[in-house]
Design the sequence.
């Protein structure tokens, strides 16, 4: 991975874990504690390809009912035009 943030150019990227939302069509998988590099200035996050491939493989297994997710949650959905400003 790069030594600097390609978004803002800042040179400080820290290892951390984060929540990653994988979405395909109308389905989504929320994955907790995903390793990434995060820019300490702008917050841009970078993920290794191996990590993203693992998430996609897990999503496919769950969507094809080859395994069950650890938990299921209900999520509210709003269209931006319906939000009060």
Sequence:
């Amino acid at each position: 991975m790069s030594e600097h943030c390609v978004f803002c150019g800042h040179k400080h990227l820290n290892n951390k874990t984060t929540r990653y939302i994988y979405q395909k069509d109308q389905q989504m998988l929320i994955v907790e504690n995903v390793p990434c590099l995060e820019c300490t200035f702008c917050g841009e996050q970078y993920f290794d390809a191996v990590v993203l491939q693992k998430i996609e493989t897990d999503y496919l297994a769950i969507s094809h009912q080859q395994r069950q997710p650890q938990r299921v949650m209900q999520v509210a959905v709003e269209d931006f035009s319906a939000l009060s400003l």
User: Anything to note?
Assistant: The mean pLDDT is 94. The longest strand covers residues 27-39. Strands lie at 13-24, 27-39, 45-46. The chain has one domain: 13-82.
